[in-house]
Amino acid sequence: MFEFEKNFTKEKLELLSKSRNEPQWVLEKRKKAFDAFQALNWPTKQEEDWRRTDFSPLEKSNFDLNRFLNSSKFITNGSASLTTSGQPTAQFSAQLLQSDSESIFSGEAEFKSSKIIFTDLDSAIKNHSEILSKYSDLINPNDGKFLAFNKAFWNKGMLLYVPKGVTVSLPLYHQLNLKSSGWGVFPYTIIIAEPNSKIILVDDYTSQEQKDWAFSDALTEIYLQRDAQLIYVNSQRWSGNVYHLLRQKAKLEANAQLITLTVNLGSQKSRSEIETELAGSGASAYIFGLTIGNGQQTFEQHTLQDHKAPHTTSDLLFKTALLDSAYAVYSGLIKVEKQAQKTDAYQANRNLLLSDKAKADTLPKLEILANDVRCTHGATVGPIDPEQFFYLISRGIEDKVAKQLLIEGFFDEVLGRIKENGFKDKIKEFLEEKIVE
Amino acid sequence: MSKEPILKIEDLHVAVEGKEILKGLNLTINKGEVHALMGPNGSGKSTLAYVLMGHPKYQVTSGRVWYKGEEILALKPNERAKKGLFLAFQYPTPIPGVTVMNFLRAALKAVQGKEIPAKDFLKLLKEKMKFLEISDQFSNRYINDGFSGGEKKRHEILQMAILEPEMAILDETDSGLDIDALKTVAKGVNRLIGPNLGILLITHYQRMLNYIKPDFVHVLVDGKIVQSGGDKLALKLEELGYDWTVEKTETLSVEK
Predict the structure, then answer these.
(1) Which residues of B touch A395 (CB under 8 A)?
(2) How many angstroms separate the CA of residue A401 from the nearest CA in chain B?
(3) B80 contacts in A (CB within 8 Å)?
């Protein structure tokens, strides 16, 4: 058992909910998740899905909820602290910046009149209960110990609700920036896109390097209704003292289109599970991943392309570049259910190793029950091309810069496949920061 | 013309994967001179080009090479390039994802040792591209990715024009070019030729030498230079073929 579990009791949960002035239905949801959390065992290295990344340092830590309840505004800050301030930066139509102690919203006038709801979760509970109570069940707490934990104890969150037919061309930006040490953050993002809406959201986690380890257990639920279009970027740039888990699930109704990009740059150990359910006919999902690891970082990425309806398309490309002694494992499943005829599914995982000590494992899997489908997958793990490297250094370019250029080139394919440009500069900035590290 | 050697190669032996390719090559190129190196396939022409640039696949088993009076065989390829050595590749490698613009800017920064303001760089790039009849969009393409034969070679000369080396090795820069492309490339090279640039022009055919006039012609056969002379030698080779030089060496060795 994880040492810190003893700090997370039902009494503490009630206290937490009360201190945030949450309505009864929220507490009930938390309690239900708590029951699932208690009933489930912590995953162990004996389990196939968990044997590659060691989260055991979490067990040794005395992770104390009291500290957050008593000493930090962070877990208790509610809608009262949501402030607004002027205009967002030019790249965005609106932005929501959350830190340990505050939430700041800024949006353009045009955005403010659009009826889009883009706010922290505490405010959403207070002001938009009718929407939230209808959704927020996409991920079942019984599906995993860590996600049950989030659903019980989530303490930061965000709601994006886009009404029918509403389109915003500039992206939205949500940042969670943590400055204190020894924290635990359980961010919960909910996105609801009504029919024929179109939006882009960049969800960005970042923190300052601290001595004490910190723990992030994040959840994202995405509801895409008929003909809705969404680009969702989830980027974790946590400092090196963080252990990070992410569970993301998207459900696509008929003809909905999702482009999702998971960017993994930070944390000591990171594990993400990206699930995409193609529930309505004609839905399509483009699922991308960009990961750069250095030092002793490890990244574990699981994906599920779940085709439940006919004429659905999914196209996945996860690219990972590893330096030093970094390690990455990718495990991806394409599942085509019996009724999902005419499915078109593709999955590729490419790993670039820039050091002899870097290592990547890749485990692509198919499970196809329909008979009229097209499914392909491919995986590669390899060093940089010595001839490409020689070509660059023969022009005077330093080894390090040549490698940076090759990493950028390696990732260019992913960004090149997304037509909308509005958010790309931000992502390139994140990548560059990490590449020149 | 000053007789200051820019490149001096002495008894160079080079092996690739354990097989000896260059077997005691000697060559001196002075500042401002154009030397043509000709020879049949497999004689070791490209091996010489690669080894001068420091490709790790080629092992120098013995011999020495001086560039501007300094021994360079222990230097890394980027150090050689920064000192002014340049190789125009016979088969330039495609690098998808990296644009010509970013690449050239990084290379110029490395060679000059300082950042060039974006505006100045764009101006320089535009001017050089115009001279080599390269369209503006070219700089946004990925390095050698999907380039035609002519584009690849023009891109090599473009790099040379921007980096302004003092010693350039052109490895079969004429191969795969139609006559118009050849003329454009030759025009680019001729413009760079001057008192401070040494050129080693590696070619299989005499054709290129109609457009770039060498001061000296050397014939490489089986890892050694077997014949050296003026530009007339190239014409003789064209007429008689490489067998002629092979026979000649055999005769010489009998006479020894």
Answers:
(1) 78, 81, 103, 106-107, 110-111, 159, 163
(2) 8
(3) 394
Q: pLDDT per residue over A138-161, tens digit each?
A: 999 999 988 999 999 888 899 999
Question: For residues B147 and A56, which has the higher predicted lDDT (pLDDT)?
Answer: B147
Q: Looking at the domain covering B5-255, what would its CATH class be? A: alpha beta
Yes or no, beta carbons of B110 and A405 under 8 Å apart = no
What angle (nearest 5°) sits at the alpha carbon of residue B206, between those of residues B156 and B19? 70
Chain B contact present for A211, CB below 8 A: no
Task: Map residue A144 onto helix, strand or coil.
Answer: coil
**List of residues 6+ apart from A328 with CB closer than 8 A:** A291, A293, A298, A299, A300, A301, A320, A322, A351, A359, A360, A361
The A residues from 357 to 396 touching B (CB cutoff 8 Å) are: 385-388, 390-396
Question: Is A152 strand, coil or helix?
Answer: helix
**Residue A273: which H helix or E strand, with range?**
strand A269-278
Domain ranges of chain B: 5-255
Amino acid at B110: A
Alpha-carbon gap, residue A70 to A66, rounded angstroms: 6
Q: Sort out which chain B residues have CB atoms less than 8 A from A396's CB and list them.
A: 78, 81-82, 107, 110-111, 163
Other CB atoms within 10 Å distance of the CB of residue A370? 16
Q: Domain spans of chain A?
A: 3-385
Tell me what pLDDT residue B249 has.
57
ipTM for the complex shown: 0.94
What is the per-residue DSSP string for B152-177? HHHHHHHHHHHH--SEEEEESTTTT-
User: Residue A83 has what pLDDT?
Assistant: 82
Whether residue A5 is predicted with pLDDT greater than 70 in this model: the reply is no
Q: Are B215 and B33 in contact (CB under 8 A)?
A: yes
Residues B44-61: tens digit of each pLDDT: 999 999 999 999 999 999
Q: What is the mean pLDDT of residues A202-225?
A: 90
Model confidence pLDDT, tens digit, residues B146-183: 999 999 999 999 999 999 999 999 999 988 888 888 99
Q: Residue window 84-103, chain B: list those with CB within 8 Å of chain A.
A: 87, 89, 92-93, 95-98, 102-103
